[in-house]
Amino acid sequence: MTCSTSSSAKSKFRPPSTVPHGHIITNTKWRGTELVTVLQGQVNILYEDDLNLLDFYPSAGMGVVYVTEADVVTGGYTYRSKLATLRKANIIKVVVLVDKTEVNRQYFWPVQKFVVLELGLTLLPVSSQKEAANMLAALVHAENHPRNNPFSGATKRKTGSIDEAVLASIQCVPKLGEVKGRLLLGTFHSILGIVEASEQVCVLHKPVDCYITNNSLYWISNIA
User: What strand order describes the sheet that includes 56-59?
Assistant: First the structure.
């Protein structure tokens, strides 16, 4: 039964065999939006009509689903079904961008619980389409420059040194400024280190309020 379900999920989407350097494959439905306007000044955009379950491909090995403010408020069973299918297929790394605004703040927890706790996917909250575009651009650059990838802990750095590009990337997280960013990197050394840190270590150092579950990091920095 499990194998059959997985095969069915895999048949529902086909990731691209490659994404050209410096490009992002984007679902046509985002054409003309603020997100694309901001994004096209940073990376090259290729539109596809039939991405099915995903909104963006920063690389062939990573897909992004964008859960909008309206999806969060209404409960968005469509996005839940898409994410569940992607999780079952388990072909590529899935990152979920979720609008978190003053309007939908009170509805955010059920989305977070579903994405992080139930599916074990990576959730990145964003406050606007502009911020989402900046996050997507950071993912494209990270995927295209693996040796400088801020999501990887493989790059060796001198003790105590902080890569400014990495610092800039994690500052895309809402309410995470330079000071907290430096504290995090000083403690965990890379974005991968932060994500893979145990909950116990996170609580011990507590450079920001956060919790980590199933290798996914969700920031709760200064949330009332």
Answer: 44-48, 23-27, 56-59, 62-67, 93-99, 122-126
